């Protein structure tokens, strides 16, 4: 299919079944989604289970949800909702990720198709030990201090021996 901006998406599964006759929901086992993003990039998602609502074009994913972005990011969480009309993936569960920036842990996220924006919320941390640290179009929201190995970390970005490049990075607390 295509979303409201004519970006392509496809959803497949090892098994699919309609929940109730006349309903718009389809239960999926081992669903896989490929989603076109602005600028020709893509997001691929796999999970253990899911439900696709054809009417509102949402995909609820549960169990070992893995998100892969073609810019080299990989994230893992237990559940997420993908709104194919709005072009967002959102969750309030712990997310762990890795990519060109290093490693990340946060309590929730929103990935937006518009401008390839990643928003992380709650207690979270990025750790970069060496090399180049490059963040672009990232928002950190409602961050808290965390105690790690006896140290009180900022809960935002912890960098060691790295060259730092930040572009369109926002750190905000409500």
What does this protein look like?
By secondary structure, the protein is an all-beta fold. The chain has no helices and 19 strands. It has a 17-stranded mixed sheet that branches. A two-stranded antiparallel ribbon has the order 16-17. A hairpin with a 2-residue loop joins strand 10 and strand 11. It is globular and about 55 Å long. The termini are far apart.
Secondary-structure blueprint of this entry?
Elements (H helix, E strand, L loop, with lengths): L8 E4 L2 E4 L6 E5 L2 E5 L5 E5 L2 E5 L4 E12 L3 E11 L4 E4 L3 E5 L2 E5 L1 E5 L4 E5 L3 E4 L2 E11 L4 E3 L2 E3 L3 E3 L2 E11 L2
Parallel strand pairs: 13-15, 14-18, 15-19
Antiparallel strand pairs: 1-4, 2-3, 3-6, 4-5, 5-7, 6-7, 7-8, 8-9, 8-10, 9-12, 10-11, 11-14, 12-13, 16-17
Rounded to the nearest angstrom, the radius of gyration is 17 Å
Q: Give the count of helical stretches.
A: 0
- How many DSSP E strands? 19
- Could you spell the SSE succession in H and E letters? EEEEEEEEEEEEEEEEEEE
Q: Give helix % range.
A: under 10%
Strand content: over 45%
Largest sheet: 17 strands, mixed
Question: How widely separated are the two ends?
Answer: 38 Å
Mean pLDDT: 77
Could you list the spans in which at least 5 consecutive residues all have pLDDT below 50? none
* Shape by Cα distribution: globular
| Class based on secondary structure composition and strand pairing | mainly beta
